[in-house]
Design a protein that fits this description.
The complex is a heterodimer. By secondary structure, chain A is an alpha/beta fold. Helix content of chain A is 41%, strand content 31%. Chain A has 4 helices and 5 strands; from the N terminus they run E-E-H-E-H-E-H-E-H. In chain A, helix 1 packs parallel to helix 2. In chain B, 38% of the residues lie in helices and 23% in strands. The chains are: A alpha/beta, B alpha+beta.
């Protein structure tokens, strides 16, 4: 019944973009962690999660992102976020996530933040 | 439904003099305890809130709070048993919307310090706490009033959102 999440990688130097499509819920664990592992295998240092095609998120799904953030911090990788609606940006801020994974209005803005 | 039923009866008695029974504005939804059905509860709550005149950003808050309460009822209260129902009751009343989410669990809610609300994100990032357990925190953050109670008939989350806040 759930709208199964798809997570696909896209190079956008110096970023590796993980495009998420569908619902970020507990059922998205395998898709998200698999995409993250694939990004790591490719040597990604700056990973941008793109939520613009996500139509529903709940706390269980956001916990998966927190899990990825935990691993990224250990691996000295930077996690960035884009494509969040105003509501979900607020949720991420409430949870303190944006302190560790900054939110950008566009992929371009994220790329410029890294490229300097 | 225990506390819900007795509360509704009291409200009916109180409002009869106004010529409009509160129960006449009650919307009830029973969903199976399978993850995914919380979206139906969200959509119904959004419809009621929009009809009442809540602005879009507040409707989003209500949707997320209802989703989290319903997921907790499905997952923790009713242990993902699809034969068990979650009852969602919406009571639009003037300038406020009351939403009650009730499971059929005989096991009361855990005490607050086990609900995950005490753990910070730093704790979780450091591996000192589970990355999960944010539902109760989000509910408390998104609605104006929230009350957790348990009876022999199940656990109840009562949420109230005021139109003027």
């Amino acid at each position: 019944m759930a709208n199964e999440l798809q997570a696909t990688l896209r190079p956008l130097p110096p970023l590796t973009v993980i495009d998420l499509t569908g619902e970020v819920t507990t059922f998205a664990d395998e898709a998200i962690t698999s995409a993250y592992r694939q990004a790591c295998d490719q040597g990604a240092e700056n990973i941008l999660f793109n939520f613009s095609a996500v139509d529903y998120m709940n706390s269980a799904g956001i916990s998966i992102i927190i899990g990825v953030l935990t691993e990224a911090r250990k691996a000295d990788q930077r996690l960035l976020l884009t494509g969040l609606t105003a509501h979900y940006r607020k949720i991420f801020q409430m949870m303190g996530l944006t302190q560790y994974a900054p939110v950008f209005d566009s992929e371009d803005a994220a790329r410029q933040a890294i490229a300097g | 439904m225990g506390r819900l039923a007795s509360g509704a009866a009291q409200s009916m008695a109180a409002d009869e003099s106004s010529g409009q029974s509160r129960c006449g504005n009650t919307i009830e939804l029973r969903i199976p305890s399978r993850l995914g059905w919380e979206r139906t509860a969200m959509d119904v709550a959004a419809g009621v809130a929009t009809r009442m005149g809540f602005p879009p950003e507040r409707v989003d808050d209500i949707k997320t709070a209802v989703a989290e309460a319903t997921i907790n009822a499905i997952e923790h209260g009713n242990a993902l048993d699809a034969s068990q129902k979650v009852l969602i009751v919406l009571l639009p009343e003037g300038e406020s919307l009351e939403i009650n989410v009730q499971d059929q669990s005989p096991t009361p809610f855990p005490p607050d310090d086990e609900s995950g609300t005490e753990q910070t994100l730093d704790d979780r990032l450091a591996g000192l706490a589970s990355t999960r357990g944010w539902g109760t925190f989000l509910i408390k953050s998104l609605v104006d009033e929230v009350e957790f109670s348990s009876t022999s008939e199940g656990n109840l989350v009562r949420m109230v959102i005021h139109l003027d806040r």
